[in-house]
User: What shape does this take?
Amino acid sequence: MAKARRVTPIRSRTIPHRANHRCWHSAPGLHGPAPVRSAAARWLPPGLAAAAMLAFGAPAAAQELEPRAYTNVPVGMNFVIAGYGYSAGGVAFDPAVPLTDADIRTHNALFAYVRSLDIAGLAGKVDIVLPYAWLSGSALYQGETREREVSGLGDARLRMSVNFYGAPALSVQEFASYRQDVIVGASLQVTAPVGQYDSTKLVNIGTNRWSFKPELGISKAIGPMTLELMVAGAVSTENDDFFGGSTVAQDPVYSAQTHLTYNLGRGNWVAVDAVYYTGGRSTVDGVTGDDLQRNTRFGATYAHAIDRHHSLKLHASSGVSTRTGSDYDSIAIAWQYRWGAGY
Assistant: This one.
């Protein structure tokens, strides 16, 4: 499918111009860990949410492509993930920023920790993501080319999830006889504004605002295949220290993602991924902008088990249909180490 590449400038309001301001926005993220299948326990851990944050910037939070997010996993497991990602093109920046013709490159790193839990007899998990980003490139601001290089911490993310149907909390021994049918789960992701931020710049790696993203997920196993659908809505607090001393607010961003995963055996699997998101119109000092998002991304994921403790995951995605701020390509790799629960 040919890409529909379009970036819509914001014309309905004026933001004070300062000649030395050269910036735009990106925050890090990676598409997470690869599961390993144990011959003894015969289980397949999920594509863990902690490292599946394939989103470059908080405005892109709805763009995450995360296969196997609600797959069941034995209670008491620990996962440490380290990853790297690269993106190029019109990397998603804050829609409130009136930049066009962006040609931006980002290098992204993350460290994540995940713990599987027993929540009142239901399988759940908690994950924490700490990202870092290096960004360089150029974009047009008020008709002039601006260049920028910046690096720093991204906004940290905490997520709690629970599978409330079809995925009971099980030990490793109990999990040996578990077979998935239909799983229904939910999660809440909280993003904390701890990333690099400078209010004299148009765009930063951090966002200077909190965001909250509740999500509902359904997973259905069909032989060696698994079909998944997740729907979510992300809401953010106001940023009262925006460029030029302004206050910016953003409408909720609604998203739907789907994945088709095929189990290759021995802990290896491959998935095709898609996400559509809309909303997110911004308001600066009470003036609503022409930056409604209606964007689509496609991707693919491959997970490879090295041994019972180590695994790798590769991911690539591309903006297919873009109205505002998603016209970029990305690749990512993550390494995972797991331990605990007698495994």
Observations:
- Residues 1-62 have pLDDT under 50 and may be disordered.
- Residues 172-175 form the longest helix (4 residues).
- The first strand starts at residue 77 and ends at 90.
